[in-house]
Design goal:
Blueprint lengths: L5 E2 L3 E5 L5 H8 L2 H7 L7 H10 L7 E7 L5 E11 L4 E8 L9 H16 L4 E7 L3 H9 L3 E12 L2 E11 H11 L1
Parallel strand pairs: 5-6
Antiparallel strand pairs: 1-2, 2-3, 3-4, 4-5, 6-8, 7-8
Helix pairs in contact: 1-3
Length: 184
């Protein structure tokens, strides 16, 4: 394991660094991956390197790489964004960039680790996310980890000549604690 911050059963989460630039540019240059992130802007090494260099200069974001325990392969990233300690909330974001790792449960495990960190370490009360209605795989993953549908922003996303809804999903600390108790 290389510089783990949080260790799970099959993955660990570690801080990102500029050595991760090429992987992120590759992932963010993939049209399919970009469509799930809602990112329409081009990505290059300069832009991504600047982003990664500035990642840990504020206390509003905790973004970590998702790494496989078995071979230290970097497969994506997960983070808490716009952390508001006074309001005890944050927005979750996740990307599995390695397509051969999709639908294998790594996203579920990464989210569970981040929920643990957010609720137990940062003492947050609410973690929420936004997801496009056409991203069915992500919606299933979020539901498995306890997120509930809260808001539908109708026709909020324009993609391939048509409009799609954007969902806001959230989980409260008390709901997360109930889920953990059931799993024990």
């Amino acid at each position: 394991m290389i510089n783990p911050f949080i260790v799970g059963d099959r993955i660990y989460l570690r801080p990102l660094n500029v050595d991760d630039t090429d992987r992120y540019v590759s992932w963010l240059s993939d049209a399919e991956i970009r469509s799930y992130l809602g990112n329409a802007f081009p990505c290059n090494n300069l832009r991504e390197k600047e982003y990664l260099e500035g990642l840990y200069k504020n206390d509003k974001d905790v973004i970590l790489g998702i790494i496989l325990n078995r071979d230290d392969k970097h497969i994506g990233g997960v983070g808490l964004h716009d952390i508001s300690l006074p309001n005890s909330r944050a927005e979750l974001g996740i990307m599995i960039g390695e397509k051969d790792c999709w639908s294998k449960g790594y996203g579920v495990e990464a989210i569970r680790l981040m929920l643990e960190y957010g609720f137990a370490q940062l003492n947050l009360n609410r973690i929420y996310l936004r997801v496009m209605s056409y991203n069915k795989r992500a919606i299933r993953c979020y539901e498995k980890t306890g997120f509930k549908h809260e808001i539908v922003m109708q026709q909020h996303i324009y993609k391939d000549g048509q409009y799609f809804d954007d969902y806001v999903m959230g989980i409260l600390k008390e709901e997360w604690l109930e889920m953990k108790a059931k799993e024990s």
